[in-house]
Amino acid sequence: MLTQKIFFNRLRLDARIGILEHELRATQIIYIDAELDVNPSCEANDHDISTVLDYRKIREAIIEESTRTHVHLVEVLGKMITERLLRDFPEVSQVKLRISKPAAFSDCDAVGIEFVATR
Predict the structure, then answer these.
(1) What EC number(s) has UniProt assigned to this enzyme (predicted)?
(2) Strands 4-15 and 28-38
């Protein structure tokens, strides 16, 4: 069986995330890295995008989950995104997701959390 991996590196979003006073007042930049293991349901037809998992739709789902409401904890946002990807895309067998906050600390490039979920 052929497995494919769709990935996103450093998808940059302005999100309403955080529990601290200054985080409740303004958006902040987050980066999302995602890897999705895909089990194709049919042979890819070079002239028909419907024969593959369109990564534009995955990107839209990640953006929607990340920006539709204020979320206090990165842990909750990661769970929301992971669950949405598994729910909306049945051909996805595993999601590996990293969310990082580059402005969290001045002495490191970013801090974040990684999530892995398997169907």
Answers:
(1) 4.1.2.25
(2) antiparallel
CB atoms within 10 A of CB 60: 12
- 18-56: per-residue pLDDT in tens? 999 999 999 999 999 999 999 887 787 888 888 889 999
- The tally of domains found in the chain comes to 1
Among candidate residues 59, 74, 76, 84, the one with its CA nearest the CA of residue 29: 74
Q: What CA–CA distance (Å, rounded) separates 20 from 6?
A: 34
d(CA 52, CA 46): 9
Q: Each residue of 50-86: pLDDT tens digit?
A: 888 999 999 999 999 999 999 999 999 999 999 999 9
pTM: 0.92
Give the CATH number of the domain where residue 110 resides: 3.30.1130.10
Cα(86)–Cα(92) distance, integer angstroms:
6
How far is residue 85's CA from residue 7's CA, in Å, rounded to a whole number?
A: 13
